[in-house]
């Protein structure tokens, strides 16, 4: 995918940007360069490759520093819902806004 000067002018208009011809040409080159990089990345066959949790995992084992999963706050649901206009089964009831 590559853009034209007309595409850059339209995008600039939509973004309410005023670009002179030199800036428009520079933006066209930069954006088309970005699209070329994306196409190169998309061309790589990644079937059978597991996703990484961390980029360094390809070089060494990475121990993620995860905190212990424990409750740290008390359950204040009733107190928080006490002054709500409508509550049912622990949920706030709100008016329907989308048909």
Strand order of the largest sheet: 1-2
Number of strands: 2
What's the average pLDDT?
A: 89
What is the tally of helical segments? 3
Largest pleated sheet? 2 strands, antiparallel
Roughly how many Å is the radius of gyration?
A: 26 Å
Helix/strand/pairing category:
mainly alpha
- Distance between the amino and carboxyl termini: 39 Å
Reading the helices and strands in chain order gives HHHEE
Binned strand content: under 5%
Oligomer: single chain
Morphology: flat
Q: List segments where confidence is low: pLDDT < 50 over at least 5 consecutive residues.
A: none
Give the fraction of residues assigned to helices: 25-40%
Can you offer a commentary on this structure?
The structure is a single chain. By secondary structure, the protein is mainly alpha-helical. 37% of the residues lie in helices and 4% in strands. It has helices at 5-14, 21-42, 77-81, and strands spanning 87-88, 91-92. A two-stranded antiparallel ribbon has the order 1-2. Strand 1 and strand 2 (91-92) form a beta hairpin. The longest helix is centred in the first third of the chain and has 22 residues, at 21-42. The chain is flat and about 60 Å long. The model has no long low-confidence stretch (mean pLDDT 89).
